[in-house]
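U., I forgot to send this yesterday:
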Amino acid sequence: MKAWKILTVVYYTLALVVTLIPEYWWFVQVGGIITVQDSPYMLNVDFLNERLLLVNLLNAALTGFRFYMVVMLSYGVYAVLRNKEFIHSTFFAVTVLYILEPLLLYVVTQMLQLLNVIHPQYSPIFIGTTTMTVSYKNTVAVLTVSLYPMRLYWLALISALFYPFARLSLYLERKGRARH
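Result:
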């Protein structure tokens, strides 16, 4: 079996496993006030320990996206095993874009600092736990902020990293065939 086929089948198979596991990829909590757990396929947002109802509607759409991904990844395995050159990049793109989640929290906190809602001594985090001092009128609160990827995200990221190598291998295979 050629290298691009092996890499592509491994990419699709691992991505399919990750897609089928019903777990979250990231966890964000701000002072116990808001907790967000999310993945490309499901979302949970608790505000003051109550789940937001809008999440149910969003999860219906995300379940549709999960189904789409299962179909595409399954077809990818089938197509490659049937000697068809089929490389689907959505799983790769979604996984890599999830690296932006900590950056999004950073941008929000920077905006809150500019509005003087968060005190300047807040040190941003990309993974881990820190404290944030928030003030509103005459009230000051010190909140613990936690942000970290779950284990499934690391598996998703490892799976996604097979994509560029599969793509490169296929490119080199095509280039080799064009010479002959």
